[in-house]
């Protein structure tokens, strides 16, 4: 293994899912739903397969139907307009979009400012591209609400400013944010946009959880802020929005020169992927608003169920404004090492979770935090909550 990758080892998701299987535990670690997406969209995939659409290499930028559906979705929801021929690229999930964006845009030695904790592929892909990561740590804050109502992880705008140097090439943003569940506010995004314009930076923004926002939170795409349309690479995915994480259909929207750069890398990674599924996802993106509303309401109820269970079990809960993850602080349980806690949890109560420390360069900042996924059936979450309660 080369030096660039040596520090990364096996992804925590593979490790923890294997642990769940081995111990017969409830897997609230890796974020994938235990119920597949809509029947009619599965049927659309079957039809595409049967009718011979996408069984051979699809076009490099993605099938026209899907590119049109992505454009329509961005216009309908956010009022953003893109040219389906030059400003959209279909990828093998958001994972490939992240890799191709970094490989296509970074020069060796370029610095990438990213919000810490960060999704684990960011660090590895920055390393593969020869870049240097510069983490800006999101800080836990209690907020002013009753009972931890607006407790969240916050972006310190001064720290963000201070992280930018003459070597900074791009900002790597993620909202709604995995693993903290933070949805960046209009004020935070405005500051990011102003900084990007002032320092002439590119922004890669991972918005795969765009449809998973709760209560008063609103997902605002960075590309919609002043000066950002031309400098922002936006990444989306069907895995999270439609509960088909195995299909690996993602996409990039950006100005033509940026899409061309991402495509240059992408064509030598997979070239193309997921032919028939691209047609099905085109139909999924065109589902009526009611689909998205019901999905969100369903996930909100699941969030409440698991958050309540975790609170009763004694965890301090950061109720997420977005994503399907709950970050908790384990210190009220008399624990302080999330790694040790997660390794012992299957034996102690038959539940698997993810130690947030893996998403930090400054591991000490992440040590007491543990992430639980709630994209699971109600009875599974209820069972997990009961098991966790037996901890105390
Ligand atoms: N970005 C974030 C923040 C994620 O949580 C994930 C995985 N769930 C991905 C990207 C990867 O998405 P995909 O499965 O579409 O590759
Ligand atoms: N994104 C999912 C998570 O955060 C897992 C994806 C993966 O296994 N790489 O849990």
TrEMBL record:
The keyword Transferase applies. It is an enzyme of class 2 (transferase). PANTHER family: FI04487P (PTHR43807:SF20). Its EC number is 2.6.1.-. Keywords: Aminotransferase, Pyridoxal phosphate, Transferase. Residues 26-385 form the Aminotransferase class I/classII large domain. InterPro entries: Aminotransferase_I/II_large, Kynurenine-oxoglutarate_AT, PyrdxlP-dep_Trfase, PyrdxlP-dep_Trfase_major, PyrdxlP-dep_Trfase_small. Its cofactor is pyridoxal 5'-phosphate. One of its GO terms (molecular function) is transaminase activity. The keyword Disulfide bond does not apply. It comes from the Bacteria. This is Pyridoxal phosphate-dependent aminotransferase.
């Amino acid at each position: 293994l080369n030096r660039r990758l040596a520090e990364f080892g096996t992804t925590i998701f593979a490790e923890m899912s294997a642990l769940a299987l081995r111990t017969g535990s409830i897997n609230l670690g890796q974020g994938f739903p235990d119920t597949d997406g809509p029947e009619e969209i599965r049927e659309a995939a079957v039809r595409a397969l049967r009718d011979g659409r996408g069984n051979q290499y699809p076009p490099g930028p993605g099938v026209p139907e899907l590119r049109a559906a992505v454009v329509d979705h961005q216009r309908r929801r956010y009022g953003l307009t893109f040219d389906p021929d030059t400003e959209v690229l279909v990828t093998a999930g958001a994972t490939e979009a992240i890799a191709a964006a970094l490989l296509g845009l970074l020069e060796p030695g370029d610095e990438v400012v990213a919000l810490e904790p960060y999704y684990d592929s960011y660090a590895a892909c920055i390393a593969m591209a020869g870049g240097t990561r510069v983490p800006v740590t999101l800080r836990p804050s209690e907020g002013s609400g009753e009972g931890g109502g607006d407790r969240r992880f916050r972006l310190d705008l001064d720290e963000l400013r201070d992280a930018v140097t003459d070597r900074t090439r791009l900002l790597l943003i993620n909202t709604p944010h995995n693993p903290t569940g933070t949805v960046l506010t209009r004020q935070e995004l405005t500051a990011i946009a102003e900084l990007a314009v002032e320092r002439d930076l590119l922004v890669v923004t991972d918005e795969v959880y765009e449809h998973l926002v709760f209560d008063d939170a609103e997902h605002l795409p960075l590309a919609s802020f002043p000066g950002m349309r031309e400098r922002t690479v936006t990444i989306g995915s069907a895995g999270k929005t439609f509960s088909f994480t195995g299909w690996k259909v993602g996409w990039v929207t950006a100005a033509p020169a940026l899409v061309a750069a991402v495509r240059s890398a992408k064509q030598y990674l997979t070239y193309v992927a997921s032919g028939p599924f691209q047609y099905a996802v085109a139909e999924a993106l065109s589902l009526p608003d009611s689909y998205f509303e019901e999905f969100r309401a369903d996930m909100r109820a699941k969030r409440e169920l698991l958050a309540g269970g975790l609170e009763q079990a004694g965890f301090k809960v950061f109720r997420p404004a977005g994503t399907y993850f709950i970050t908790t602080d384990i210190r009220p349980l008399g624990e302080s090492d999330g790694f040790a806690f997660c390794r012992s949890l299957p034996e102690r109560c038959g539940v698997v979770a993810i130690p947030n420390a893996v998403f930090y360069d400054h591991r000490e900042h992440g040590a007491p935090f543990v992430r639980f996924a709630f994209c699971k059936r109600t009875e599974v979450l209820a069972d997990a909550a009961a098991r966790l309660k037996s901890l105390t």
